[in-house]
Design a protein that fits this description.
Layout: H1 3-29, H2 33-61, H3 70-95, H4 110-133, H5 140-165, H6 171-205
Helix pairs in contact: 1-2, 1-4, 2-3, 2-5, 3-5, 3-6, 4-5, 5-6
């Protein structure tokens, strides 16, 4: 198990929570359903990463193992997939009104838009860096963090798009952000569901007493 992967996961989880607080402050300054969706999604990403780090630390402290067992890793990955898909589904649901432009827009004040763009690009940089650092690992828990980082990056692209378009917002730009949120958020939902289902199946197959070839191999 690459300990550095979990160090980066822990650090990025803290930054996700800090970014969520920053977005919450902006939401209080300029209440907007789209901002609320991003706040809640950031919290979900932080929780998902914290779940991975907690599983790793629990194995190190209580079991005195270098890493959680493969079964425990898949169980933790299942929980991470559920959290990711739930956070992304909530994000998509809150962004759906953007498609009508009736109740939600991306028409932010210039200062708010500038801060949002800064947060989006910095957070996106963290997500991309972490995904690259973990790309070679085949450990289930590390791969689950990589899925979380990819999903986070997709949603952050939408936030960056909204911040840039808000400098010249029209109904059409809100609709375009809504389409992006539906596309990238929906992709993240599917990624989280796949992670949860695949990991749950692998955890069942690898339980003590399981029969069949799946119990003897790790994918």
């Amino acid at each position: 198990m690459d300990e550095r992967s979990f160090f980066y996961a822990g650090v990025s989880a803290l930054f996700n929570l800090l970014f969520a607080v920053g977005k919450l402050v902006l939401f209080l300054v300029e209440p907007n359903l789209f901002l609320l969706a991003n706040v809640l999604f950031s919290l979900g990403i932080g929780i998902a990463k914290a779940t991975a780090v907690a599983a790793y630390r629990r194995a190190r402290s209580s079991e005195h193992a270098a890493a959680p067992s493969t079964v425990e890793q898949y169980r933790a990955a299942t929980r991470i997939g559920i959290v990711l898909s739930a956070a992304a589904a909530l994000y998509v649901g809150l962004c759906l009104p953007l498609l009508t432009g009736a109740t939600v827009s991306v028409d932010f004040e210039p200062l708010v838009a500038e801060i949002l763009a800064l947060i989006a690009f910095v957070e996106l940089g963290f997500a991309i860096t972490a995904a690259i650092r973990m790309r070679r690992s085949k450990q289930p828990l590390v791969r689950s963090i990589r899925v979380v980082n990819v999903g986070s990056g997709l949603v952050l692209i939408v936030l960056a798009q909204a911040a840039i378009l808000s400098f010249a917002t029209t109904v059409e730009s809100s609709w375009g952000v809504g389409i992006s949120a539906l596309l990238f958020g929906g992709t993240t939902v599917l990624g989280g569901l796949f992670l949860a289902v695949h990991s749950a199946r692998r955890a069942r197959a690898l339980r003590p007493g399981s029969d069949g070839p799946e119990a003897r191999s790790i994918s």
